[in-house]
Every structure is written in C-alpha cells, then in structure tokens.
C-alpha cells in the first residue's frame, strides 16, 4: 500500500522547507499524497499545488488551526479547504494579529531573562512566514542560549515555561465551524497531546464530534504502537475516521522526516478516500 502524509509544515509557517522543496522531498520519499497544513496560513498552498502537478504528488490543501478547549490548546487540521473563501481570509487575519500581539511579549520576557534578541531579528529570520515559537527557539539556539529547539521550549517557550505568553485563541467549536464553513474536513491533530493534558479523552471526542469533527490523527510520528492502537479503538468507538501524518517541520524537528516520521511511520493511502468523501457533503 503506497504511503501518504497528511500533516506537514512549510516556510509559510514554522517549517524550514519551501513548498516546492517539501513536495520534491515527499516525492523522493515515495509519498503519493501530501497535505500541506501550515499553522494559521494557506500561503504555501498555490506553490505546493504547482509543485505537485510537476512531480505527480497529489496535494491536499490543508491548514492547522490552534484553538482553546477548557484552557487546553488543541490543534485542528482542516483538509480540502477552499483557500480563497473570504471567511477563511478574515479569520486568519485575526489569528495572525493575535500572534503579532504575543510574539513581542515573549521577546520582552526573554530579554528580562538575559537572552539578547529582538523581534526584528525573529521577523527577519521568519521572512514572510507566520511567526511561531519555533522561529524564536531557533534564534535562541543560533545565539548559543540553548543547545536545541527542544531545550528552548523546555526552558523558555513551552506552556508554563519562563518566557511563555499565551495568545487569544478561537474556541474548539469556532475552529471546527470555520473549517466546515470553507468546505473542509476537520480532524483532531496529535491526540496524544490532548489526552495527556485532559481528563476524560472520551468527553473531548464526543464534544468535538458534536461540532462536526470527522477524524482523529491516529497515526502520528511520536505515537507508540500502544498509543496508536488506543486511538484507533477510540476513533472506532466514536465513529471518527483514522488519519495520520508526520508533522514534518524540517530544521526545528530534524529527526522527523516527511512520510516516515521517526522512521517507522506508515500512513496507508487508502485512508484518504473516506476523508475526501466528507469534503463533498
Ligand atoms: P506557536 O505556533 O507559536 O504557538 O508554536 C507552536 C509550535 O511550536 C508547535 O506546532 C510545534 O511545532 C512547536 N512546539 C511546541 N512545543 C514544542 C516542544 N516542546 N518542542 C519543540 N517544538 C514545540
Ligand atoms: Zn509547527
Ligand atoms: Fe500541532
Ligand atoms: Fe503541526
């Protein structure tokens, strides 16, 4: 069964490869279909679709939207979205401005913690991308304040760490409604993060399903075999589709490769058709 990858980031958000380079790498890795799911951005989609047409990799237009569920940050993936829908553009403008409020505050806290960096430096580094914490993390590594992106998150940037600043996020129902409004299919990303933080994961699934969630990202780079099995049975119980992806970012998560994750990831191509069917409903 050919492999697919339904969760990847480009330079349109906090990935390090351009859409074209990512699609070419996916081709080399034997990935038959690739979803581009940048954080709060659809800017990478036109270039990815063009590169897909040249290389023969099927491109699924996607997005990853951060939202808040009972004070926990969840990420909802949207597939087969209409990237030109004005409601999407309008919502993304708000999400980007909430990041622009937050990022200088993170920098300010870092400066108070004796890390000498400026927001201009971060923006230069990110280029035209949606600035995210991984950009800040990479600057901290480059300047020698930490050894790795992981250490930057642990010490400074993760929720609860020394320089963490939250941002205004849409609710989980708003995020799912937006994806549905623009013709997309909503899937809960990396459920392991949600189940670790939350009490009853079943309640979360029921709630999200009632708002229109279609799938659960059961196959994921950092899921163990046991976790994958657990989410597979939870998906079945709740009538959710099984999906999967690597969450490839390139340089900020150098051990994760597109298509194969940490090496053992395999998302079978036959998971795609049921997902696509929902985009026609
Ligand atoms: P932001 O979009 O600025 O909220 O940053 C969120 C992104 O940071 C996530 O999608 C991950 O790519 C990355 N991230 C979050 N926590 C960690 C962590 N502990 N280590 C490495 N990367 C992380
Ligand atoms: Zn990311
Ligand atoms: Fe995510
Ligand atoms: Fe992601």
Structural write-up:
The protein is an alpha/beta fold and 281 residues long. It is built from eleven helices and eight strands. The chain has an eight-stranded mixed beta sheet. Helix 1 packs parallel to helix 2 (45-55) and helix 5 crosses helix 6 (149-157). It is globular and about 50 Å long. It starts with a strand and ends with a helix. The mean pLDDT is 96. The protein binds adenosine monophosphate, zinc ion and fe (iii) ion (2 copies). Zinc ion (ZN) binds next to loops.
Shape: globular
Q: Terminal Cα separation, in Å? A: 27 Å
Low-confidence stretches: none
Helical content, roughly? Answer: 40-55%
Biggest sheet character = 8 strands, mixed
**H/E series, N to C?**
EHEHEEHHHHHEHHEHEEH
Number of helices: 11
Structural class: alpha/beta
Mean pLDDT across residues: 96
Give structural attributes.
single chain; 281 residues; alpha/beta; 8-stranded mixed beta sheet; 11 helices; 8 strands; globular; binds adenosine monophosphate; binds zinc ion; binds fe (iii) ion
């Amino acid at each position: 069964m050919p492999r697919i990858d339904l969760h990847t980031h480009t330079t349109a958000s906090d990935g390090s490869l351009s859409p074209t380079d990512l699609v070419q790498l996916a081709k080399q890795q034997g990935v038959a279909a690739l979803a581009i799911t940048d954080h709060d951005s659809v800017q990478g989609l036109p270039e990815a679709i063009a590169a897909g047409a040249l290389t023969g990799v099927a491109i699924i237009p996607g997005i990853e939207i951060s939202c808040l569920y009972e004070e926990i940050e969840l990420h909802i993936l949207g597939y087969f979205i209409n990237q030109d829908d004005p409601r999407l553009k309008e919502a993304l403008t708000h999400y980007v401005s909430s990041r622009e409020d937050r990022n200088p505050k993170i920098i300010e806290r870092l400066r108070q913690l004796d890390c000498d960096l400026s927001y201009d430096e971060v923006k230069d580094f990110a280029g035209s991308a949606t600035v995210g914490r991984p950009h800040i993390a990479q600057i901290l590594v480059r300047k020698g304040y930490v050894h790795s992106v992981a250490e930057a998150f642990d010490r400074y940037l993760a929720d609860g760490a020394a320089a963490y600043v939250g941002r205004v996020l849409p609710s989980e129902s708003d995020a799912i409604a937006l994806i549905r409004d623009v013709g997309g299919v909503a899937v809960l990303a990396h459920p392991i993060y949600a189940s670790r933080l939350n009490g009853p994961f079943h309640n979360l699934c029921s709630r999200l399903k009632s708002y229109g969630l279609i799938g659960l990202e059961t196959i994921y780079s950092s899921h163990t075999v046991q976790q994958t099995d657990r989410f597979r049975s939870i998906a079945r119980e709740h009538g959710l589709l099984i999906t999967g992806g690597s969450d490839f970012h390139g340089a900020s998560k150098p051990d994760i490769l597109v298509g194969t994750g940490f090496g053992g990831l395999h998302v079978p191509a036959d998971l795609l058709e049921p997902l696509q069917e929902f985009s026609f409903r």
